[in-house]
Design brief:
By secondary structure, this protein is of the alpha/beta class. The chain has 16 helices and eleven strands.
């Protein structure tokens, strides 16, 4: 069962080959056997999962099953889930049990999916390697010495290892697309506002966006259709209809205009990664697409702009964790000031503290105009670069990351870690959608092709990704762990 895609599992459930309960039991057993080394889950919820599976089987027996009814998945531990610990990978929230569901969770439950648990992540989604988690690093199923990417590394690793057919992640600066690339799966970051952020523990509110992670673009299309839509509880949610993202998956690509940003193929890109990406683009040419170079001239400002804006928003969002209302509280505080200081110092990890300090500094009097306001002006220029490019081409393509997955512990310098997101960060600043699809293997570790579109072009991106996967088999390649049976 574990070797099937979400779409294949849906067909098997509909045909009565097995029940949702049998499927859920099988995957729970795989998690129990194989996740000890991977560390992809923070919390596994077998009782809730089996109850949801039984409810899905009952709905199917009544003839009330939808396309996702009874399908198991996992949730990044940043989505509030009623009665389940929601930690955001942090000691600060190690004791927090959410009293309500995020909108994404509500929508997935309404669609009849079965959540198996909460996946590991970089603390408060701050990281590119999943090494910043309070619960320890996640290992890449392709190579236990490598990182799975971050911050949604637990979700990516669980899907790649065959522990779940799909998972939910969030993407603030590449945190769906980069781990998808590192783990050889498909990951979609939707347009900002396409999916409600209500109930997602905030990192940077103008950048965060939830999205699906699965083995194929077709799987992501089904999941996006379930979670997208307007939400009155999220003021940044866009009041726009949700199309059938599966309807155009098989549309031919003849006449597709592809732009290759020159800034994505320069210094710092691993030559073997570049070769894999260019070979993937050659596949598109064979499918009838045309390719031309384009320029995104403000790309080199993306990382400095991001690391002003995101920490500034984080310092504001994380101010609520003060040891008073919920979360970690220090022992025997001497007074209120001591309570604040020690609770936050003990509850937050090093990277989170670093970004809070950076953000507080850039928002302080005398620096706001020089840093935060200027970064927002640069952000507008970066967005305009993309809009200008999409006047000339239908999609942009390039690498999702400059290298394959790097070794655990290899990036000691924070700046070198930040540079891993050089091809993903600008997309969040612009608010456009992007998808990473498996496109090669270098040194035994996967490589991802990133495809970008203009605002609300998810259907087009999914079509472009699906057609590539119909013509290649990179998405079918799996690590040895995923081939092991119980």
């Amino acid at each position: 069962m574990h070797d099937k895609t979400l779409t294949e599992l849906a067909a098997s459930l509909a045909a009565g080959e097995f029940s949702s309960r049998e499927l859920t039991e099988n995957l729970l057993a795989r998690i129990d056997r194989f996740d000890g080394d991977l560390n992809s889950f923070i919390t596994v919820t077998p009782e809730q999962a089996l109850a949801a599976a039984d409810a899905a089987d009952a709905a199917r027996a009544r003839g009330e099953a939808g396309p996702l009814t009874g399908l198991p998945l996992a949730l990044k531990d940043i989505f509030c889930t009623t009665g389940v610990k929601t930690s955001a990978g942090s000691k600060m929230l190690d004791n927090f049990v959410a009293p309500y569901d995020a909108t994404v969770v509500e929508k997935l439950q309404a669609a009849g999916t079965v959540s198996l648990g909460k996946t590991n992540m970089d603390e408060f989604a701050m990281g590119s390697s999943n090494e910043n988690s309070f619960y320890g690093p996640v290992k890449n199923p392709w190579d236990g010495a490598a990182v799975p990417g971050g911050s949604s590394g637990g979700s990516a690793a669980a899907v790649a290892a065959g522990l779940v057919p799909a998972a939910m992640g969030t993407d603030t600066g590449g945190s769906i697309r980069q781990p998808a690339a590192f783990c050889g799966i498909t990951g979609l970051k939707p347009t900002y506002g396409r999916v409600s952020r209500y109930g997602i523990i905030a990192y940077a509110s103008s950048l965060d966006q939830a999205g699906p992670m699965a083995r194929t673009a077709a799987d992501c299309a089904h999941l996006l259709g379930a979670i997208a839509g307007h939400d009155l509880r999220d003021s940044t949610s866009v009041a726009r209809g949700v199309p059938d993202y599966t309807a155009e998956l098989d549309a031919p690509l003849a006449g597709l205009k592809i732009g290759l940003p020159t800034e994505y193929f320069g210094e710092g890109l691993d030559p073997e990664v570049e070769q894999a990406v260019r070979e993937a683009i050659g596949v598109y040419e064979s499918l009838g697409a045309t390719v031309r170079e384009v320029s995104l001239p403000h790309t080199h400002y993306a990382i400095p702009a991001y690391y002003v804006i995101a920490p500034a928003e984080a310092s504001s969002n994380l101010a609520r964790y003060d040891g008073v209302r919920f979360g970690h509280r220090c022992d025997a505080p001497a007074d209120l000031t001591d309570l604040y200081k020690r609770s936050r110092a003990e509850g937050f990890g090093e990277e989170v503290q670093r970004r809070i300090l950076m953000g507080t500094h850039t928002l302080s009097e005398g620096f706001f105009d020089a840093y935060y306001k200027k970064a927002q002006q640069v952000r507008r220029l970066i967005r305009q670069d993309f809009l200008d490019a999409f006047d000339e081409v239908d999609v942009l393509m390039g690498p999702a990351s400059p290298t394959p997955a790097f070794d655990l512990g290899a990036k000691k310098d924070p700046v070198s870690m930040y540079l891993q997101d050089i091809y993903t960060i600008a997309i969040n600043l612009a608010g456009i959608p992007g998808i990473s699809v498996p496109a090669g293997i270098v040194g035994g570790r996967p490589v991802g092709l990133q495809v970008l579109g203009t605002h609300f072009a998810e259907a087009r991106l999914l079509n472009v990704a699906h057609q590539f996967q119909q013509a290649t088999d990179w998405h079918l390649r799996r690590p040895a762990l995923a081939e092991e049976s119980l």
